Amino acid sequence: MNSERADVLWLDEHHEVSFLELAESSGLSEAELRELVDYGALVPTNLRSVQWTFSGDCVFAMRTACRLRNDFELDPHALALALKFIVRIRELEAQLRDLRAQLPHRSP
Amino acid sequence: MKYKDYYGILGVERNADADGIKKAYRKLAHKYHPDVSKDPAGEEKFKEVAEAYETLKNPEKRASYDQLGSHQPGQDFRPPPDWGNQFGDAQSSFDDIDLSDLLAGLAGGRHRAGRHGEKFPIPGQDYEVTAHITLEDAYCGTEVDLSLSVPEFDENGFMHRVPRTFKARIPKGATDGQRLRLPGKGGKGLNGGRDGDLYLNVALHPHTLFRVTGHDLYLDLPLAPWEAVLGALIEVPTLGGPVNVKVPAGAHAGQKLRLAKRGLPKPHSGAGDLFAIVQIAVPTVVSEREQALYKQLADGSTFNPRGHFQRER
Predict the structure, then answer these.
(1) Mean pLDDT of chain A
(2) pLDDT value of residue B216
(3) Would the pLDDT of A108 be above 70?
(4) For a disulfide at B128, which of A33, B199, B213, B264, Cβ 3.0-4.6 Å?
């Protein structure tokens, strides 16, 4: 079986994606993305600009949003609420991971 | 083709109504959905549940499924001939077709594949996979072998799963939870539609020495009591090789010694830090001479580590 070789792109705050790219890669419609921006669950890097761009890590967040919309049949309002809770959980998990890393693992 | 008992997967009777099916699905989705559940096996279970619901919630697909009859889960079976005539070529081979792909085709996928001349672009499917790598691999960058089972359509428009393998280079700088995109490495697009993307989620294996948070690393640094009191030059392991660290006199347990830029490299520039956390280790077995020296120290020292107890009284 032949193995192809693939290049990777970072999806983080250093890589920006356009509004259309975010819609295409997330599976959410442009109207849904606009509603999520209205509810504050999705924040463009340039909110005041006519052509919104987004941090690369929004791609994964919006793919999660699309899964939740499809699998739980959520409307944009419920989806925005769920996303805000997910962000809070992620932040708390990161804090917990950070604190755990600082705890000694071995008793001297 | 292997039979799947969609009713059994959802835990409903074959004559369950649409509301009952939806309720059963939602209950199981709450339990197993990978974005909600902490169950490691949840994702696989949810895939089964979602596949079952995808068919049973759609009256047309459910009717087609019901016409296949009832078999044991996993049992090889062939659809009845009239079923094939109704939905496609009776001559078609169903051997390596997944039941869910077949039923998905009935809902338009097969026709959309271009069999009846409708040619509009259909983007390929995106995939998400987790690549488990070691901390050393994250530090240096690594190559991982990925294999996917992607859909392709045969000349009759039936969907088949075919294996696709490739190597992906994970550049140095990735850390736990890092997301990467491999453009065009998902499912093939149809009729000029774009190929799907592959999304990689990097997960680090736990390390025996280092604990990771972002690009920073933490390491326990046990010191002998005399090293803590007098200070010492200690060899400390790092991912780039051992370095000598000067521990200041009077080091105390829990103190963090920062080794700047000795953590994981960051993707675009710089690196995280390595924090060595001081622990005071005491010997569990001491010789007579050591015991005498400790006794001598105890008799001669005025140090009271519990002095603050008295101040609180």
Answers:
(1) 90
(2) 96
(3) no
(4) B199
Q: What does the longest C-alpha to C-alpha distance in chain B come to? A: 99
Looking at 3.40.50.2000, 3.30.160.340, 2.60.260.20, 2.40.50.140, the CATH number of the domain B210-302 comes to 2.60.260.20
Q: Which has the closest alpha carbon to B140: B167, B114, B172, B117?
A: B172
Give me the pLDDT at residue B109, please: 47
Instruction: Judge whether B47 is closer than 8 Å to chain A, CB to CB.
Output: no
- Residue with more model confidence, A54 or B85: A54
Distance from CA of A6 to the nearest CA of B (A): 5
In chain B, what are the domain boundaries?
A: 1-119, 122-205, 210-302
User: What is the per-residue pLDDT across A10-47, written as a single tens digit (0 to 9) for each?
Assistant: 888 888 999 999 999 999 999 999 999 999 999 999 98
pLDDT in the model for residue A26: 95
Count how many pairs of residues, chain A against chain B, have C-beta atoms within 8 Å: 107
- Residues of B in Cβ contact (< 8 Å) with A17: none
In whole angstroms, what is the distance from residue B44 CA to residue B160 CA?
A: 20
Q: Residue B169: its chain A contacts at CB < 8 A?
A: 5-8
DSSP state of B76: B
Q: Which residues of B touch A1 (CB under 8 A)?
A: 163, 165
CB B26 within 8 A of CB B18: no
Task: Look up the CATH number of the domain holding residue A75.
Answer: 1.10.1660.10
CATH superfamily of B122-205: Urease metallochaperone UreE, N-terminal domain (2.60.260.20)
Write the DSSP symbol of residue B67. Answer: T
pLDDT at A7: 75
CA of B275: which chain A residue's CA is closest?
Answer: A102
Q: Which stretches of chain B drop beneath a pLDDT of 50? A: 90, 109-115
Segment 40-69 of chain A within 8 Å of chain B by CB: 56-57, 59-60, 63-64, 67-68
ipTM: 0.86
In-domain check, residue A43: yes
Q: Choose from A1, A2, A5, A10 for mutation: most chain B CBs within 10 A.
A: A10
Q: What is the distance in angstroms between the Cα of A40 and the nearest Cα belonging to chain B?
A: 20
Phi and psi at residue A98, to the nearest 5°:
-65, -45
To the question of pTM greater than 0.90 for the whole model, the response is: no
pLDDT at position B70 is 84
- Is the pLDDT score of A80 beyond 70? yes
Tell me if B203 sits within 8 A of B132, measured CB to CB: yes
